[in-house]
Fold this protein.
Amino acid sequence: MNAYLKPTKFIDSDADIIQQFAKNVTDGATSDKDKAIRLYYAVRDKVRYDPYKFFLTEENYTASNTLKDGASFCIPKAVLLAAAGRASGIPTRLGFADVKNHLSTQKLLDLMGTDVFIWHGYTEFLLDDKWVKATPAFNIEMCERFGVKPLEFDGINDSFMHEFNNNNEKHMEYLEDHGSFEDLPFEQIMQAIRETYPAFCQSLNQQDHEAYDFTKENIST
């Protein structure tokens, strides 16, 4: 399991900011499961979900940069949670899957040109000799605003995706699994993003990010 405890280029668990964050969050925890649970909720809710932080630079996907920025989307947040886990002595790795999102904002859907979110990122902790999935993407404020049940994590069962909203309407649908990774497969993901969302990538490159504010957009059903 040594490979899942070591810092990497993107999962920079040795960075001072990551070390301090993990220490503060897990202070007083008595087991790896308790640490993982605390880290999950800290990353889920202290780092706001923002799908417009979609920049195709290596820096945008490092754990330390995501923590400093305080907002990002599913992939960088999964990387951050993995880094915090490794900094806490818990073997962690990254997992990815394509999902169909039935609830999003119209502006985001128009930019993406599809309701399929490729390479949706999550983290896997090794707890009690079992890999457990944890998806920290959507902070509780966003879930409440969109009427989506927030994903909970108990350190035992997989916390993978928001299958239904509060009205039991279909929210997310699993399409394809990409497997698990020791570090972020950056080039592979960037190529897939450019091919799948060309207009989205071009738009975010050409315009100031301040023109996009996900916190002010309304859900599209």
Residues 112 and 200 are 5 Å apart (CA to CA).
